[in-house]
Design brief:
This protein has helices at residues 44-52, 83-94, 98-109, 124-136, 154-167, 180-184, 204-218; strands at 2-13, 16-28, 33-37, 59-63, 68-70, 142-146, 172-177, 189-194, 197-201. The protein is α/β, with parallel strands linked by helices. It has two domains: 2-67 and 171-227, Rossmann fold; 83-139. The strands form two sheets. Strands 5-6-7-3-8-9 form a six-stranded mixed beta sheet, sandwiched between helices. It has a three-stranded antiparallel beta sheet with strand order 2-1-4. A hairpin with a 2-residue loop joins strand 8 and strand 9. The radius of gyration is 18 Å and the shape is globular. The protein starts with a strand and ends in a 16-residue tail after the last helix.
Length: 234
């Protein structure tokens, strides 16, 4: 089970208090595919960080199931190490056989010889492809995603989407997004964060309507996502 129990998390952005969650509760079974809509600048990345255990709430409790993994997470990569060395470190971290995991990641990432070069020489897209390869090589029970479900050119994006669909036959997804289109394809259940509260919705259409209305009401104080702590997903 994932979620929040009477959770609160607040920030100060340029001296102005920003509410991410305020006494909010949400329960998400391990294999549920939930789309959670959060307005841009209202802590989308922070909510994922709370679920992943990277951040902690000011009050309340965060429920974290075993086997969760952030989709496309590359925050553990070290720039001075090669792609292969970084993947071997991830294998040790999650308890996978390094040889078979590395073989999968080398093939999926499509980096060629660059897989054996230091990440300091990688472009952002190359790092992202390695991060998504690392994700899909891990047998997660639930994927945590901050809007970005794929990276790279059109070919690689389609490859990521196909891999995600295959994984979601047996695992769950918590997708936190500020664009309703992002949650429509992969999510079966939906919720919206409004003024720090999490509201469950009966359908994607209801969530979209509620989210859009919330944007219209609060457009004047919208801030960029970069003003809040960001979650490195690639």
């Amino acid at each position: 089970m994932w979620g929040f129990v009477n959770c609160s998390r607040h920030f100060s952005s340029f001296g102005v208090p920003k509410v991410v969650l305020h006494d909010a509760s949400l329960l998400v079974p391990t294999t549920e595919k939930l789309g959670l809509l959060v307005r841009a600048g209202e802590g989308k990345s922070t909510i994922i960080k709370l679920l992943a255990g990277i951040d902690q709430p000011d009050a309340g409790h965060v429920l974290r199931d075993k086997g969760g993994w952030p989709l496309g997470y590359g925050g553990a990569f070290r720039a001075e190490l090669t792609g292969e060395e970084n993947i071997n470190n991830v294998a040790a971290l999650v308890g996978l056989d390094a040889d078979s995991y590395s073989a999968f990641c080398a093939d999926f990432s499509e980096l060629g010889e660059a897989y054996f070069h230091p990440l300091s020489l990688y472009t952002g897209r190359m790092r992202g492809q390695l991060a998504f390869a690392a994700t899909f090589g891990i047998p997660a029970s639930t994927y945590l995603a901050d809007e970005k479900l794929a990276i790279g050119d059109e070919h690689f994006k389609k490859k990521c989407a196909a891999a995600l669909r295959a994984r979601l036959r047996s695992c769950g997804l918590i997708l936190v997004a500020s664009n309703p289109r992002a949650t429509e394809e992969f999510c079966d259940t939906h919720a919206v964060v409004i003024r720090g509260k999490i509201i469950r919705c009966a359908s994607h259409d209801e969530a979209k309507a509620m989210f859009t209305a919330g944007m219209d009401e609060g457009a004047e104080d919208e801030v960029a996502d970069e003003e809040l702590a960001s979650f490195d997903l690639a």
